[in-house]
Design a protein that fits this description.
The protein has 149 residues and is mainly alpha-helical. The chain is built from six helices and two strands; from the N terminus they run ααααββαα. The radius of gyration is 18 Å and the shape is globular.
Length: 149
């Protein structure tokens, strides 16, 4: 039995490494495209804008959790986005210490510009793959992630 467990562990390790490499390559290509558009924007800033486009009004703690960055890094990034007028902080009506983060019109315009570039890269990555295979892989990764909670 220990041999099988070790084999599963090694395969899971390879999967994790492969996912990390894919994310790194996608990040490099997206950053290159962002630099053509606006050299002052970073992948991290775009990542937060994209997250807010799908979850507008979440707080900094939720952002921190979803992008796997510590709270102080998120505060710094959000301050940068606020200065650029891409997001705004709004006090939560039930807890004034809790600030919700919302995209501004300007922030949304950037998302609408950059998002198609990201989709095109993901399309290229999935070019010769079957949709059912991708869905199975997605479920697998989500289950493995849940196992770590």
């Amino acid at each position: 039995m220990p041999v099988k467990q070790n084999n599963i562990s090694e395969i899971a390790l390879e999967l994790g490494l492969a996912m990390g490499e894919m994310k790194s390559r996608l990040r490099q290509k997206i950053q290159a495209k962002i630099n053509e558009y606006d050299p002052d924007l970073s992948f991290e800033l775009i990542e937060i804008l994209g997250l807010l486009s799908r979850n507008n009004g979440i707080n900094q703690q939720e952002i921190s959790s979803k992008v796997s960055k510590d709270k102080s890094s998120i505060t710094y990034l959000i301050n940068s986005l606020v200065k650029r007028e891409l997001v705004e902080r709004v006090e939560n009506t039930t807890d004034r210490r809790n600030k919700q983060i919302f995209l501004t019109v300007k922030g949304n315009e950037i998302v609408e510009t950059v998002y198609p570039w990201a989709l095109e890269l993901y399309k290229k990555a999935a070019d010769d793959l079957d949709e059912d295979d991708i869905n199975r892989a997605l479920l697998l990764v989500k289950k493995m992630t849940a196992n770590l909670e």
